[in-house]
Specification:
The protein is an alpha+beta fold. It folds into two domains: 91 residues, Alpha-Beta Complex (Homing Intron 3 (I-Ppo) Encoded Endonuclease, Chain A), CATH 3.90.75; 77 residues, His-Me finger endonuclease fold (3-Layer(aba) Sandwich), CATH 3.40.1800. It contains eight helices and eleven strands. Strands 3-4-5 form a three-stranded antiparallel beta sheet. The protein has a two-stranded antiparallel sheet with strand order 1-2. Strands 6-7 form a two-stranded antiparallel ribbon. Strand 1 and strand 2 form a beta hairpin. Helix 1 packs across helix 2. The longest helix has 14 residues. The radius of gyration is 30 Å and the shape is elongated.
Length: 228
């Protein structure tokens, strides 16, 4: 039997389902399983619960949809992100968000992804910092608190935005040693990046700015007047 050939009627013959709790239990018609036992096992790798029905492994969320609606879903997402929470109110057919976008078009998919990432910006940022720098959300928060929420160089809060939202301070690390140095605003982070973390270049830039500062130009003019 293919998964798509399993009917709502057959499913209800072997399993009971509570839409409020999202739990499947075996019925006594399923002779080799104890009646009332919760059905399925959760994969440690994926977090999904699967249930063997008529020799076929089925994902519990898809069975829940079939049990309630009488038809197989295209794709099921979990509103709260818990892949073993099969309450019918937690399941959404098609995509994670119930949106107005047409997912059949390239534009619709792009707009959906933009909204999806925007609504979960903190989660994605935490995951990216963990992946790139090995620091947790708490560690980032402790660093931010130690810097009073401001850039470690200019001592100013971030002003750069993305999609109308102020960005979080960037994690700055040593490109040669790999260790974390601090949190920087986009301007300062970009600046030292352009100077390739070269201390001599940065000192030369300071001397250059001092040489051509307004105060020095005024002093030079006074000297000309005095000597003139």
């Amino acid at each position: 039997m293919k998964i798509t050939s399993l009917t709502q009627k057959r499913l209800k013959e072997v399993l009971s389902f509570d839409p409020e709790t999202g739990v499947f239990v075996w019925k006594n018609t399923w002779h080799h399983i104890h009646e009332g036992k919760r059905a399925g096992n959760v994969s440690k790798k994926t977090g999904y619960r699967s249930i063997m029905v008529d020799g076929i492994d089925c994902l519990a969320q898809r069975l829940a949809w079939l049990w309630v609606h009488g038809q197989w879903p295209r794709l099921i997402r979990f509103q709260n992100g818990n892949r073993d929470d099969c309450r019918i109110s937690n399941l959404c057919e098609g995509f994670y968000l119930k949106t107005k976008y047409d997912h059949r078009t390239k534009e619709g998919k792009a707009l959906y992804q933009k909204e999806y990432r925007s609504g979960r910006r903190d989660k994605f940022s935490d995951e990216e910092r963990q992946r790139k720098f090995g620091i947790s959300r708490k560690q980032y928060g402790d660093m931010l608190l130690a810097q009073n929420g401001k850039c470690a160089i200019c001592a100013q809060p971030e002003t750069a935005t993305r999609n109308g939202v102020v960005k979080a301070l960037a994690v700055d690390h040593c490109h040669s040693g790999g260790h974390i140095r601090g949190l920087l605003c986009v301007a300062c982070n970009t600046g030292i990046g352009k100077f390739k973390d070269d201390r001599d270049r940065l000192l030369a830039a300071i001397k250059y700015l001092d040489k051509h500062s307004g105060a020095e130009r005024v002093t030079a003019k006074l000297e000309i007047v005095r000597n003139g």
